[in-house]
Amino acid sequence: MFGQGYSSTGGRLPLAGVAALCAGLLGCGGAFGVGNSTNPGSTENISAQTSYRIVGTVGTPFFATVSDARSSWQIQGTAPTSIVIVQDQPPDRVVATKTVGDHSLLSLEITTGFNVKLLASTSDPYGTAVGGVNQGGANGALLNLAPSANPDVRFFVKGPYVNIFNALIEDETHGEVVQSRAPSLILFDSPNGGSSGRVDGIFNEVNFLGPFAIDLISDGVVVQSAAGGVSETLKANVAASD
User: Fold this and answer.
1) 3-state DSSP of the chain
2) pLDDT for the residue 139
């Protein structure tokens, strides 16, 4: 199922269809952090999606810059954190730096389809781990970080800790199914073609370790939160800067 597109003649998948599609991911042994396009009217194959996990000594704080060929994001967090780019435009690059002066371990892993690879690690005080992926074929490696995402739209699944979940992330014309593990930051690259418009996320837990805690963040501001259930939906209108 991974790497396939899905069609919906109505333009948007109904909630029952979302549940069936998410269940189908599990039935095909879905890999954490991967996604599938649900662009209505298209059944063409899409390339295996890419996600990152910043792992190592639990609780190690870091500052990271994540970039594809179109947009970049700055992130502050602690290990472990999963990062998924929706509508990824490869090649990608990640630079993660410890913000503590001890010898705790910070590692950068990448998942492309079903393949997991350790890209880099550091245990140096304030050490940096750098990694990237070239999914772009002739596009080559990403040598320079892209401009900041505009609009900068993120879904932050804060918990429950290590809980596996499925999500359908959509703008007004395109949807992508993602499977990841909390805590997870889902970066929505250029929703609505980089213009203002509606975005939404429909989240369903897989292993039911407790109630969700999710924030929808636009340009650094939490515009909607959801908590208390094992299925949650967040919707908001987001504005692109001129």
Assistant:
1) CCCCCCCCCCCCCCHHHHHHHHHHHHHCCCCCCCEEECCCCCCCCCCCCEEEEEEECCCCEEEEEEECCCCEEEEEEECCEEEEEECCCCCEEEEEEECCCCCCCEEEEEEECCEEEEEEEECCCCCEEEEEECCCHHHCCCCCCCCECCCCEEEEEEECCCCEEEEEEECCCCEEEEEEECCEEEEECCHHHHCCEEEEEEEEECCCCCCCEEEEEECCEEEEEEECCCEEEEEEEECCCC
2) 52
